[in-house]
Write the structure tokens for this entry.
Amino acid sequence: DVAEAANAAKSEFLSRMSHEIRTPMNVILGTLQLARSNPDDREKVAETLKKIGDASDHLLGLINDVLDISKIESGKASLTLAEFDLGDSLAAAESIIAPMARDKGQTFCAEIRSVRHERLIGDETHLNQILLNLLSNAVKYTPEGGRIWLRFIGLPAHSNALEHLRIEVEDDGYGMTPEFLKTIFDSFTRAENSTTNKVQGTGLGMSITKSLVDLMGGTIEVESEVGKGSLFRVDLELRIPEEQAAGYF
């Protein structure tokens, strides 16, 4: 039954992906033709170039999702550990998400609370991918005028050599049904209703996020209620650089 369900989900995914990929490609080809027809109209060319850029970004996002899930499912995903600054990660996420939220008339708030050490050792690239997956979904599934929160919260750790970090991404958007929450982290699944069907995507984002959290030895959970929003919690224990850990009592 599990194998048949997975196969049906992949078939539905391939069907949806063919549509998802065709849409931005048609935009690119159509606007290119418009630009070629009006080479001397700078305003028209600038407008078509922006549309081509937006469609290209969307297409690249779709392709990256497919490549990411393929790498994860084949066991080829790995961690690259290095020192990084938690404040830099928050600022990087904010620089991408704040303009997206602003464009939809949303309010975006970010904070670091009770974290002992902001200089940590971990895979910053994967951490940032987790943040952007959760936050971009919050923007997508929150209506105009809504609010989105990103919180880095320090919790008691099992060792002075570790920082127990809780990441919370909360929104007051559309929310999810109890039925969908049971499968939200499965590959190729998306909530299907008249509101969410207007949002483009592969249905891989949450599966990739869960896999990356697992790879980093963490946990992820979600609370949600239709019409009231969603709250994602990611718990990670990251190493503190030795010189900082030695000086902490």
